[in-house]
Amino acid sequence: MIEILVLQAISYHAQGDLPAALLPLQHALELAEPEGYIRMFLDEGSSMIHLLREASARKIMPDYIDNLLAAFEGEKRKNEDQPDHSSTLPKGHRDGEPLIEPLSQRELEILKLIAQGLSNREIGERLFLALDTVKGHNRRIFEKLQVQNRTEAVARARDLGLL
To answer: I need a labelling partner for 3 at 20 to 30 A (CA). Which of 24, 48, 57, 94 fits?
Structure first.
């Protein structure tokens, strides 16, 4: 439900309807705060930063929004410290053609944690993700690498030079 509300808010914001965007955003924040969800907001990027700032200016859940904006700043600093390897990542799948869709930075991060032997729950705790979110990333990783399980994913990623 929270993800749907976040997407509605982003959609209204993209259409230039800020008042309509703030309603589902506030509802999403009210549902997310007790669980301490952060990642689902961070993954929405600059549009979410703008919406959170607008909500903060209107005194909508100021403490939680301050935490989310601080998390965005922490994420920004972390990303600035890490070199961008996306242009140097090798490509290829079983018949030598490029991957239909390359792995995202988040998927690569999760894949590295899988390779370290972490469970889905441990990955979620480390990255501040819900268990279902981790499982969804796993499914996309498996699809993109054309594998059926974690062991095959790690082996395939090593073959491709991703790990």
So the answer is: 57
Asked if 37 and 3 count as a contact pair (C-beta separation under 8 A), the reply is: no
Task: Compute the half-sphere exposure of residue 64: CA atoms within 13 Å on the CB side of its CA.
Answer: 19
What residues does each domain of the chain span? 2-81, 87-159
Identify how many contiguous H helices and E strands the chain contains and give both numbers.
Answer: 9, 0
Banded model confidence at residue 12, pLDDT cuts 50, 70, 90:
very high
pTM (two decimals): 0.49
The answer to whether 115 touches 151, Cβ cutoff 8 Å, is no
Residue 103 has pLDDT above 90, yes or no: no
* Buried b or exposed e, range 83-116, using 16+ CB within 10 angstroms: eeeeeeeeeeeeeeeebeeebeebbbebbebbbe
- What does the longest C-alpha to C-alpha distance in the chain come to? 55
Q: Is 72 helix (H, G, I), strand (E, B) or coil?
A: helix
Kindly report the CATH number that applies to the domain delimited by 87-159: 1.10.10.10
Q: How many residues does the chain have?
A: 163
Question: Minimal CA–CA distance to 162: which of 107, 119, 122?
Answer: 107
